[in-house]
Model the fold of this input.
Amino acid sequence: GAVVSQHPSWVICKSGTSVKIECRSLDFQATTMFWYRQFPKQSLMLMATSNEGSKATYEQGVEKDKFLINHASLTLSTLTVTSAHPEDSSFYICSARDPGRLVVIDEQFFGPGTRLTVL
Amino acid sequence: AQSVTQLDSHVSVSEGTPVLLRCNYSSSYSPSLFWYVQHPNKGLQLLLKYTSAATLVKGINGFEAEFKKSETSFHLTKPSAHMSDAAEYFCVVSDLDTGNQFYFGTGTSLTVIP
Done:
């Protein structure tokens, strides 16, 4: 149980285009999802917290107009990188909490990640 | 403020020998602590988690970690390393003060020598 998927697993795009990454909770409803960014050989940095039916909360330094997050349903959150540039190339990872398990712990379940390369 | 320090960016062990990956944390409340493993180009897999119950936590693949509040440590150990253990390991802390937000350590890369 508690499986999170991401699509696509990798994407290559031209500079200036927009890219959408999907994060789905497959066997549970996730009221809260998180988006992380990971540069090569570095740790994960939280970009934003996505709450179903409300606006995402962005971490300091993350441009909300560039990284659009939509959490329109309890099983899907999307991250759109608008007008992507080479410096946006990174590994993007989403995670989700399973409210049914919160009574035990605040665990997050991670997706497999999406590697974005902007040419 | 919450933070996690992984003291070694890289650890190298021989196959069959013990593994020790060190993690120290700072937290203003009763923390939750996790160890995740990440294989190349893969997502994070939970190894184990500390839930304020038993201080010695057993995880998957023979890993375990001990929560030591007096030392603010949560070191990860395994008695005998296997080649498949080669990966990146992340220590994570969260607590109620920050709405259970995850704070990741910088990671430790484990190499297993045949």
Notes: The CA atoms of residues 3 and 26 of chain A lie 6 Å apart. Chain A touches chain B through 24 residues (CB under 8 Å).
